[in-house]
Amino acid sequence: MQITSTNGNTSRSNNHNKTLKYICSYIKYKFDSLFAHGLLFIIPLLTIISVFIILIFSIIYYYTERTDNYEDALWQTFTRILDPCAAADDEGLKHRIISGIVILCGLVIVAILIGAIVTFMEEKLHELKKGRTTVIEKNHTIILGWSPKIFDIINELIIANENQRNPSIVILTSKDNSEVQYMIKDKINNSRNTRIIYRNGNPMSINDLHKLSLNQARSIIILAPEINNPDVRIIKTILAIRNNPRRTNIHFHIVAEIKERINLEAAMIAGEDEALFVYADEIIARIIAQSCRQSGLSIILSTLLSFQNAEIYFKHESALVGRTFYDAVFAYNKCSVIGLMLSDGTVKIFPRLTTIINTDDQIIVIAEDDDQIILPSDYLLHINNEYSGSTSSSLINHNTVLLSNPMTRRATKKIERNLLLGWNNKAPLIAKELDTYVARGSELHILTNSDIITQFINEQLVNELTKQKIFVHSGSLINKFDLEKLNLFSYDYVILLANEDSEQQNLIEEADAECLICLLYLQNIIDKSNNEKTFSIVAEMYDIRNCQLANTTCADDFIVSPNLISKYISQLSENKNIKKVYDVLLTADGPEIYLCLASMFVPLETPISYYQILQETLKYQCLAIGYRLMKYLHDETRFFGIVLNPDKQEQIIFSQNDKIIILAEKFMSSAPRSTHILNTEQLFALNRDIYQNRRFAANLAFLIKIHAFHDV
């Protein structure tokens, strides 16, 4: 029986110990859980402990007859908890012991409080550095993802925001936040009045996107990451934005990159009418195909796409409603009207001069800034007096008596022999674009040392071209011997492309270096031949800084593809209608930008106002938007001689080889070989269809009288 009793006591003792351990563990767990709440738990806990200590020891002080009343006892206890020096005048062992205990309790409480506050601040700073907090902004631009284009995009947005109030850019990327801040601050020296806010997260995560105040954003830019098949992530990000359960009725303005055309249809389904997609390779291919034919075009496009200089704007001008497009062209002093956006959203670049501007139509203008698009108070005088007789007799003789037949200005496609040096993803697109400009029987020669590329050309690309025959030459663009074998002077245009795998950041410098070496070899071949350079060279590069190294080479134009695409994306983020304009300008069908000899329109070495230049170009069914002075061809500070949107009162003196920049459709940019003298009846018939309103007829009558006077 005793053994049984002993075993029973031992069992009860073990159960009791287990219960105590469980209770202690439970209390500790709950205490840890409460402490995990940080200051929200610690401060109330310390407050309760402090109140309890003050109440207990104030009673002790009161009953030890050290104070006259209880209020004084409370004050003495409170001061000793916060300030140990308050007990310096205490007397008596018992009173000093009580004060010492109160002081020790106070030190512990204050130490815990300070430690908790410091820990909280460290956690908060760490959270801020990680970029995990919610952004509360309005009318801001959001950039999702990371690519080398982000620096140029931010620079352009900073310029665009200069006249905005409290603008901001919010960047969400999965890269480390401190690394992102360091790189952006290293590349962007002055953000001016724009605040750049960094957040860390996954652009495809709805929770991370919610931190960016999507519903209040002005626009959202999605950059393609430098990974395999980035389009999948782009599409998923768009779905996360548009299907966010917290979105309001706002209509999102999304601009996204797409790397492969095959994914464009799926992306458009995902984005519907809320997303614009930039297929960079196709845009650059179009620019290269046009630039090789129009030297200086890349500089013009870079200027128009930048917020720093003259750019394209849309404006509803009620004063011009009911008037013609011709009236709008001459209405502004410091703006160049280039087209109309109709009420249904259709963009017309350089429409018929007699097109009437309706109530909901917007004019499309080139201006230095949107606040510069101001209709002068005397705009009616400008419109009505354009052909008032201010035209000099020399100008009349040039364009009336020796007026060329406008039909000779229409460009006809000709057989060409072009050369493509190097290969990348844009090469097939460039070949297809060239196919729209040349006549049947043209040749495209390609230099490459890749068997895979050669196989692709022979098996696929040859079947996609209808007017060009392809010839593949085996060799390297950095091998002078391979270049010499090509007989450069037999080609019309030479296009130099960066290597296929060079779009990665770490290979950009290597790709540009190869282009520079090739240009040096080409320059050397030209110099040794003692022949005049008769062909145009267009080179693609990735870093705009490397163009400065190549300015002394034989290249006629440089296409810095990442820089142009970055500017284009920035423009679209500010105004989605810009895409409609460049869709017209960068295609073979419709008006394009041409650089034509000034002597085709106006006399040389004679001062002439830009108003008169507009008059003369309109006679040839083209619209002047600027000019190029060739004496500044290599002066970067003067934009290589290119002036867009000049003041219409400006007097210009053109010299030999200077050019006028025009908008026209299939225009012949070189001077015609033959001219003939027109009689008055021919002159009137020639212009009657172009100028059909009363003011034009009055002007023509004036010119006819002068012409008749000279005949007499």
TrEMBL record:
Residue stretches spanning the membrane: 38-63, 97-120
Its membrane topology: Multi-pass membrane protein
High-level lineage: Eukaryota, Metazoa, Spiralia, Gnathifera, Rotifera
Protein name: RCK N-terminal domain-containing protein
Xref: PROSITE patterns: RCK_N
Record-stated family: Belongs to the castor/pollux (TC 1.A.1.23) family.
Major subcellular location class: nucleus
Coiled coil: none
A cellular component annotation (GO) from this entry: nuclear membrane
Top-level taxon: Eukaryota
One GO biological process term: monoatomic ion transmembrane transport
Keyword Lipid metabolism: no
Domain RCK N-terminal: 138-284
SUPFAM superfamilies recorded: NAD(P)-binding Rossmann-fold domains, Voltage-gated potassium channels
Subcellular location per the Swiss-Prot or TrEMBL entry: Nucleus membrane
Provenance organism: Rotaria sordida
Keywords, comma-separated and alphabetical: Ion channel, Ion transport, Membrane, Nucleus, Transmembrane, Transmembrane helix, Transport
